[in-house]
Write a structure and sequence with these properties.
The longest helix has 18 residues. The strands form 2 sheets. A 6-stranded antiparallel β-sheet has the order 6-5-4-9-8-7, sandwiched between helices. α6 runs antiparallel to α9 and α7 crosses α8. The protein has 10 helices and 9 strands. The protein is elongated. By secondary structure, it is α+β, with helices and mostly antiparallel strands.
């Protein structure tokens, strides 16, 4: 047996530890501080200072870090061109559509992604339920005036609207409308999705006939919507910490608030 070859293939399956340690140094800057000392990097990464210095030498050489006169570090200029390339290549549809398909696969109900556009909400993407009886025939591109529907409340709440119903939506994170006050006979579960800097990207909506959104089925639907909102938020560069309360059982969440 070729030990070197075996070790190499195993390393490929596990990832490259040295590379991951170097990336953890760059990840440390996502905590919010623009300039970090060696001690702070050690605390955030869990790495030995000697290891950090070796890794920083490589990151400095490639321009991903800069060393300040006082010895602290900040991100280097090489990071910016990569961000620009990502921005040019990024397509919201590439992230949203797989999430909608996954949500519909899990629940067998129709999933949609809505965004706020002025005084309207717009259905950008939609994956239809496999059931022969679905919710009303809303298609991609459909536009609705902002009203008291669950989707409008979520979009408005996480864009800073004031009022008791918006405060409640921010606390609960997930809004359940059964039945909907927009389309008779339809129920919905709605959850926000976030992008970089916790900017609202849009609302993830699961909808279907009221008869299938029962006390027995809604908890699993709600959990599926939250799971997909978390995954989609991560893929868009947002922080899913806002969903922690949404994952608590209802009784525990009431005690905490």
């Amino acid at each position: 047996m070729d030990v070197k070859a075996s070790s190499s293939s195993g390393e490929e399956r596990r990832g490259v530890a040295a590379l991951e340690r170097g990336l953890s140094i760059l990840e440390a800057f996502k905590q919010g501080k623009e300039i970090l000392s060696l001690a702070e990097l050690a605390g955030l990464t869990g790495l030995y200072k000697s290891t950090i210095l070796r890794l920083c030498d490589s990151l400095l050489r490639f321009g991903y870090l800069q060393r300040m006169e006082d010895g602290r570090f900040r991100l280097g200029a090489a990071v910016f061109p990569l961000a620009r390339v990502y921005q040019r290549a990024f397509n919201l549809r590439d992230a949203v559509v797989p999430a909608l398909r996954s949500l519909t696969d899990r629940t067998s109900e129709t999933s949609s992604f809505y965004v706020r556009d002025g005084d309207s909400e717009v259905c950008l993407h939609r994956t239809a339920s496999p059931h022969p009886v679905r919710d009303a025939g809303v298609g991609e591109g459909a536009r609705f005036a902002i009203d008291n529907s669950a989707c409008s409340v979520v979009l408005s709440a996480f864009l800073g609207a004031r009022g008791d119903k918006y405060d409640k939506a921010r606390r609960d994170v997930v809004v359940i409308a059964s039945p909907s006050n927009r389309i008779p006979g339809v129920s919905a579960v709605v959850c926000p999705v976030f992008t970089v800097n916790q900017t609202l990207a849009g609302a993830l909506l699961l909808s279907g006939p009221e008869t299938r959104f029962t006390d027995g089925t809604v908890p699993a639907m709600r959990a599926a919507v939250v799971d997909e909102a978390i995954a989609l938020t991560r893929s868009l560069g947002g922080d899913p910490v806002v969903f922690e309360s949404a994952r608590l059982p209802q009784a525990k969440r009431r005690k905490r608030t």
